[in-house]
Specification:
Number of strands: 8
Helix content: 55-70%
Low-confidence stretches: 298-312
CATH class of the largest domain: Mainly Alpha
Strand order of the largest sheet: 3-4-2-5
Shape: elongated
CATH topology of the largest domain: Multidrug efflux transporter AcrB transmembrane fold
Largest sheet: 4 strands, antiparallel
Distance between the termini: 30 Å
Order of helices and strands: HEHEHEEHEHHEHHHEE
Amino acid sequence: MMFENRTIRFMRFRKPMAIFSLLVVLAGVVSLFTKGLNLGQDFTGGTSVELTFAKPVEQMAIQNQLEEAGIHDAVVQHLGRATDILIRMPAQDKAGSNIGQRVVDAVRQDNSNPATLRQVDSVGSQVGEELYLNSLMAVALSLGLMMLYVAIRYRFKFSVGAVTSLLHDTLFTVGIFSIMGWPFDLSVLAAILALIGYSLNDTIVVFDRIRENFRKLRTADPVEIVDVSLTETLRRTIMTVATVVLVVVALLLLGGPALKWFSMAMLIGLFAGTYSSVYIATSYALAMGLNKEDFLIAPKGEEVVEEGEILP
């Protein structure tokens, strides 16, 4: 055909790619059931303490002082300036209600650099558990609403493919966090919700081009049309992903500990979302019997039959 020489045959590899996706997702699911997630303070409960010093301080020095004082597993990070410190820690057995003062006493510098307690926030384990359940509900609700949106805009086979793609991206990212034992907190959850929207947008662009080409390339078979559509949207996909990756890498390198795992989740999800738009969403639609009758519109007063003939 006229477009054969300039078309990348993406769908030629859809079966091995489907096997790869299945293995990665299964590995993540098994890890979730056996190992679980390394839930952060947002979900398990704990305390955060904000301090201000007269002069800049080093995070590692604060960390060592907390360990010496018996305050373990604390995460120390700067809050914009080198003089502002945020300390996040799990519930301490001996902390009592004076955890803020205990932290101030533990990190007390010499008299020329005193520490001032700004704020103490505590999250109970019950609140953290409720937050975790609400987070799961938020992800499930977002997937359900997006499935409804795609079903209304396209056909049901497209909506199932889109949600399968989004579910793949979610399990892919969360599974890697479980396998690697990386902290999973609200910032990571925010990244996953952002990625669901990003991945759906990428999938919608591909679906729109497929719909256009089904109406233009009447003699091509569905696999060829999908390959043409993916090839035509490839440049846009690369430019979009490259732009977002640059921003996320900058956050990863310069954002400090507060944005580290958010950025890591975004990087993993960007790869998964771009890949799934090609090999999950469209492959599922093809497996469901995608054909030109799903898109052809008969002229007023006429009927389109399966062979493409127009009957009066």
